[in-house]
């Protein structure tokens, strides 16, 4: 996983994989069938571990605001953690590449679209529960947060530090705050 996270799909050679796994290329092909299949396994491992922060935040937090904020806090922590590659494996592994890798590029794009849809779904559920104003554009807000999440990955990959990335939380959360209904404080 770390080899693909560090170098991307195309940039990771079979020699890199042999070094990372400590087994011969013939055994890698026997176990996984292809570099692409191994890559898909690496992405699944990433998404079940470090890269699964967004799903955990959306599942565990009680309010939409807490879920969105935690998603960004955890993303920044994950993307800037020392001792591991910076940024997001799914965002940086292959946004473009050689023609023979179009299938991998399309698969990763579908993973990113799924993340965007999960944010939109979270916001739509919050709107149905009465957390968001009825006229809030949940699709636009979801797209905004997905773009921002992917941008945080690119910024981290480019060396922007956690403190600077956390500073964007105030304006990022302001967009959601404007769409939230006032909390019912129980007083009538």
Automatic annotation (TrEMBL):
Keyword field: DNA-binding, Repressor, Transcription, Transcription regulation
Pfam (any one): TetR_N
Domain Tetracyclin repressor-like C-terminal positions: 71-156
Domain of life of the source: Bacteria
Domain spans labelled HTH tetR-type: 4-42
PANTHER family for this protein: HTH-TYPE TRANSCRIPTIONAL REGULATOR YJDC, TRANSCRIPTIONAL REGULATORY PROTEIN
Protein name as it appears in the record: TetR family transcriptional regulator
Organism of provenance: Pseudogulbenkiania ferrooxidans EGD-HP2
């Amino acid at each position: 996983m770390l080899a693909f996270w560090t170098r991307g799909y195309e940039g990771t050679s079979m020699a890199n994989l042999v070094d990372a796994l400590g087994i011969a290329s013939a055994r890698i092909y026997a176990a996984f069938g292809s570099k692409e299949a191994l890559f898909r396994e690496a992405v699944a491992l990433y998404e079940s571990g470090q890269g699964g922060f967004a799903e955990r935040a959306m599942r565990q937090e009680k309010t939409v605001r807490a879920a969105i904020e935690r998603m960004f806090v955890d993303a920044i922590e994950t993307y800037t953690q020392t001792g591991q590659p910076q940024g997001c494996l799914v965002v940086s592994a292959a946004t473009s590449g050689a023609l023979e890798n179009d299938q991998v590029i399309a698969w990763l794009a579908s993973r990113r679209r799924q993340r965007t849809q999960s944010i939109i779904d979270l916001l739509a559920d919050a709107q149905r529960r009465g957390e968001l104003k009825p006229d809030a554009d949940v699709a636009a807000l979801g797209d905004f947060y997905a773009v921002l999440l992917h941008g945080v990955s690119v910024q981290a990959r480019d060396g922007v530090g956690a403190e600077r990335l956390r500073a964007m939380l105030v304006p990022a959360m302001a967009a959601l705050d404007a769409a939230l209904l006032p909390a019912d404080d129980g007083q009538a």
